[in-house]
Amino acid sequence: xxxxxxxxxxxxxxxxxxxxxxxxxxxxxxxxxxxxxxxxxxxxxxxxxxxxxxxxxxxxxxxxxxxxxxxxxxxxxxxxxxxxxxxxxxxxxxxxxxxxxxxxxxxxxxxxxxxxxxxxxxxxxxxxxxxxxxxxxxxxxxxxxxxxxxxxxxxxxxxxxxxxxxxxxxxxxxxxxxxxxxxxxxxxxxxxxxxxxxxxxxxxxxxxxxxxxxxxxxxxxxxxxxxxxxxxxxxxxxxxxxxxxxxxxxxxxxxxxxxxxxxxxxxxxxxxxxxxxxxxxxxxxxxxxxxxxxxxxxxxxxxxxxxxxxxxxxxxxxxxxxxxxxxxxxxxxxxxxxxxxxxxxxxxxxxxxxxxxxxxxxxxxxxxxxxxxxxxxxxxxxxxxxxxxxxxxxxxxxxxxxxxxxxxxxxxxxxxxxxxxxxxxxxxxxxxxxxxxxxxxxxxxxxxxxxxxxxxxx
Length: 458
Known about the structure:
Elements: E1 5-8, H1 12-23, E2 28-32, H2 42-45, H3 61-71, H4 78-86, H5 88-97, E3 102-103, E4 114-115, H6 131-143, E5 149-152, E6 156-162, E7 165-171, E8 174-177, E9 181-183, H7 192-199, E10 207-208, H8 217-224, E11 229-230, E12 235-241, H9 257-262, E13 264-266, H10 280-288, E14 297-301, H11 302-307, H12 316-322, E15 328-330, H13 333-340, H14 344-360, E16 383-395, E17 398-399, E18 406-408, E19 414-420, H15 439-457
Parallel strand pairs: 1-2, 1-9, 2-5, 9-19, 10-16
Antiparallel strand pairs: 3-4, 6-7, 7-8, 11-17, 12-16, 13-14, 14-16, 15-16, 18-19
Helix pairs in contact: 1-6, 1-15, 3-4, 13-14
């Protein structure tokens, strides 16, 4: 059989591209490495929150574009950022046309749509009844009547290029021809060698807050035929209890981002090592790059722990200790240091300097911003500590892609016939503050853009 495009990966990005291409009269083939009916993927495990740099999709496009560029300190690719911003609202409407339903989370007041039904949002992984799982099934169901095809249990091993243009793929021992290929197999968070090379960390010291399926196959194949990459040095993740390394009930939730962002995160010497005010994604990246990524500890007081009853979608108080996570309590900072194994002199000095910074403006190194998260003093006993680790969801970097969904080569020119969507795409996240665009908008938005570009060229 002949196909107009081959899509590598059956997550949101791949099925969005395939369905939109089929709507436009093309014949797509989706090749998914997972063989089960409910094959694991980050799309299925996601919370279903569709935002653009934490802004609602119906925000005016100019404001969305500004938010992307500001969040990345100008490092995002402008044409791709512009394309996503301009069609954000239309992306939501297309999803509705596919059967997606949305609702607001009761803990959110900013009209940030989440796929319905909402996940139960409890400690541990609960994807089965979620809106994300439902939508993935809908997109698969919609594909065949439109003339598309999904094959499970097929891993692509090579992208075929002929006379300078894409000619198909090799998969399952055969060559399948098509004039266009869309790479949509996710990031490289489950590829240890790529993680060491580009993120610069020990993957074994991170909690895998993901489906474990993003090994970077598409990235490797594309760079092997000349594709350029962007923003490879960061990942999207959260700060978790260190017990999540051995306790399945403690990932992907609860996360302790806001506790860290309003208090302190220290290493085994009791010293701060990053600007907590940049938030949990930035802190998780900083933890991952420590010499001892499993030596970080969140330090806070009774006021912050009490506030943690309402913080975040899954409040860490009491869900973390209820699920078996360690929360250490002590009457003084010295006792807290002894109980956690942190150097007492270092921790006492760090907490005193931090409190003096808040009270009198004493200089902090590293500096502490207060733009997004207001720092809280550590002065009200009892004092608390949570041994922490970095939880990685998906890598932020990937293939360099333009505003038409085309993969670029080393000269910033499109590789004819090669496209990418979703977490395979880099250049929209990261930057000095480790910003996060939003994985679902990268999947849905760029998936639609890529399909429409292919249809226009066919």
